Amino acid sequence: MSVSHSPPAPAAPRIAVLPSAVADQIAAGEVVERPASVVKELVENALDAGARSIDIEVEDGGRQRIRVSDDGTGMEREDAVLALSRHATSKIRAAADLVGVASFGFRGEALPAICSVSQLEIETAPADGAGTRVRAAGGAVDDTRDAARWRGTTVTVARLFYNAPARYKFMRGARSEWRAILEVVTSVALTRRDVRLSLAHDGKPALTLPAASSLRARLAALWGGAYAERFLAVDDVRGPTRVSGLVERPADVGTAVRRIYVSVNGRAVRDFGIVRAAEAAYRSTIPAGVRPTLFLDVEVAGDAVDVNVHPAKAEVRFRDRWALERVVEEAVRRALGTLDAGAAIGRPPLPFPDAPRYEAPAVDVEALRAEPHPREGLFAPSGAGGPESPAPGLAAPPPVDAAGLEPVPFLWQVNRTYLLFEAEGGVVLIDQHSAHERILYEKFMGALTRGEAPAQRLLFPLTLHLGPAEAEAFDENREMFEQLGFEIEGFGGHTLIVRSVPMPHPRFDAERCLRETLDAMTGDRFAAVAKRHERLAATVACKAAIKAGDQLSPAEMRALFADLRRTTLPAHDVHGRSTVVQLSWDELERRFGRK
Hints:
Elements: H1 20-31, H2 35-48, E1 53-59, E2 65-70, H3 77-82, H4 111-115, E3 119-125, E4 131-137, E5 140-147, E6 152-158, H5 165-168, H6 174-191, E7 196-201, E8 204-209, H7 215-223, H8 225-228, E9 231-238, E10 241-248, E11 260-264, E12 267-269, H9 272-280, E13 294-299, E14 305-306, E15 317-318, H10 321-336, H11 340-344, H12 365-369, E16 412-414, E17 418-422, E18 426-431, H13 432-450, E19 456-465, H14 468-476, H15 478-484, E20 487-490, E21 495-501, H16 510-520, H17 532-544, H18 554-565, E22 580-584, H19 585-591
Parallel strand pairs: 1-7, 11-13
Antiparallel strand pairs: 1-2, 2-6, 3-4, 3-6, 4-5, 7-8, 9-10, 10-13, 11-12, 14-15, 16-17, 17-18, 18-22, 19-21, 20-21
């Protein structure tokens, strides 16, 4: 008896081509994350169509209905239907067109993805043609007919994710989704200030923004004129790169809600590198732990940036990111250097205020000549000379220095803390400690980046007995201390012998400065090696600067003023405190009841 064996049944194939409906929903997942994603895509489509006015209406945080109307270039019936097909586009014909693409997207690119997970309606009309209404659901067109409307397009998206329950349950509450939509529209409004925008939620107007002439005007429309005046203008061009926008004044950082908006070639993006570079410009001007508000527009050559690295085009890739970030940092730093305080002390290119209205008291030149000469060192201002002999530690500047700055005005010392002088716009006060701290910081940074600084050798060396933590901090930073002008030797255990020190002013207490600096360097506060030289320069500058209560001679005051005027960022010390405060004549007259 023979037994027959049937061949085994073939195994089910492991690889299968997905149905179109499933593939469309997967594609939609890359572009349509939430209602705010739909708003972004539809608004950007409107902008690409040349819209000058866009109206946005949402219901239930966009979960039930989103409607975007524009006055841009409408579509013929054939194009309106084709726009709902995958890979349909009006902007791209070949792969080469993806390089340097200037549009946000391509009319129809996002529509199929949105349509696959919603009920969608398009009403559109070209300038010289008949209107069309197309209705679709779940990616399939249900109805096409004529419609009466002016030139432009209206897209209505209803019941988002109605056919994708797994996606629907991941949507947040109406309030949270509404906030995300508001953020998207705000970002577009800041980037495209030439377009009128309106936004309504559940029938109530939320934003009505006419076209604005400038970023500052747009900020005023969004958050009020007082808020818009908090910022400094940035506008800097380096080669093919331009960085413009508004950045927060250091004195205001941390006093209000922080906002960050960055655009690249007119496209709002998330780019932590650009933000990090802009924040780096604030180093030594704001306290640690606080971060500024930034509104920055970056323009680069089209072939220097790739916008096709993120499904929603929210991120970009730069050909030379390091160079770009350096340009951003320098642009913001230059803007911070043009603060009103810089104008008040006559920093170029702004003119120095007019001469005082009142006759200044006569200066006893013979008495000044009798003052001893300063020790030469790192901190003696360049160009010393003129009719006055310099006071100890600070050299008096000439009538006009080599940089072409105007003469130093007559200065009064008030409460042994502030220097006061009269300017064209009012009365100006300079905090002598903060000002000297800024001067020393920039000169210490120069010493750390360009080489060792001159030092004053001590007749009697100092002996410092340190704790273990302070001794370790010194060992880790010995080379930088030497670059600053300190000559220090180990003497066994935790004992140091100090033989030479910098001499920033005649009241400089080298021992106290070293002890306080080393104490501040213990723990993890100096753990960031990349910024250690900046932290050290700031700490030593703070400890070495003249103090409130120090009596300054006329020559010292003049030298302090001249040195501050030569700094890059004169308006703030290394802790973010103001160095210069100006009281306008209007304010003084109001206080005295003259206005």
